[in-house]
Amino acid sequence: MNHGDTKTRRERIPEEINLVASQVVDAVYTVHIALGPGLLESVYEVCLDHELKKRGMNVKRQLTLPVIYDGINVDAGLRLDMLVNDCLILELKTVESLLPVHKAQLITYMKLTGLRLGFLINFNTPVIKEGIKRIVL
C-alpha cells in the first residue's frame, strides 16, 4: 500500500513568494549584523522595515488583525508585527529563546489571514541563523 496517497499534499509555495522570503532573510541578516542582539523588538522592527523598503518591498507594520467570531468582529487587539508584499507574515521577538507559544501565535495569524508562509524571528541570539524559523501551512 502506498501511504503517500493517504497524506494530505500541500501545494508548493509559489516561486515569487519564495523570492520575497529570500529577500526577507537577507534583510534580517543585514540588520542583525549591523546591530547584534540585545535591543528592543521595536528597534529591530523599524530597522528591518527600512531595510526591506530599500529592497523595494511593500511593508505594513503593526497591522490590526480582525477576528470574526459567530458573525461579529471581535476587537481582540491582535497585531501583525510585519506583513511583507501582502504575502508573508513576520513575527519578531527579542527573547531568551523561542517557545511553542510563539510558533502558535504565528500559526494563528497565518490561519486568520489565509497566508501560508511566515517567519518567526528572534533577534536576541548571537547567531541569527538560530533565531529564524520558517513556518509553512
Quick description:
With 137 residues, the chain is α+β, with helices and mostly antiparallel strands.
Q: Whole-number average pLDDT?
A: 93
Our Rg estimate from Cα atoms comes to 16 Å
Total of domains: 1
Distance between the termini: 27 Å
Helix content: 25-40%
Number of helices, counting only DSSP H or I runs of 4 residues or more: 3
Give an overview in words.
It is a single chain. Helix 1 crosses helix 2 (41-54). The chain has 137 residues and is an alpha+beta fold. The longest helix is centred in the N-terminal third of the chain and has 21 residues, at 15-35. It has a five-stranded mixed beta sheet with strand order 1-4-5-6-7, sandwiched between helices. A two-stranded antiparallel sheet has the order 2-3. The chain has helices at residues 15-35, 41-54, 100-113, and strands at 59-64, 67-69, 72-74, 79-84, 88-93, 117-122, 132-136. The chain has one domain (14-136). 36% of the residues lie in helices and 26% in strands.
What's the SSE blueprint?
Elements (H helix, E strand, L loop, with lengths): L14 H21 L5 H14 L4 E6 L2 E3 L2 E3 L4 E6 L3 E6 L6 H14 L3 E6 L9 E5 L1
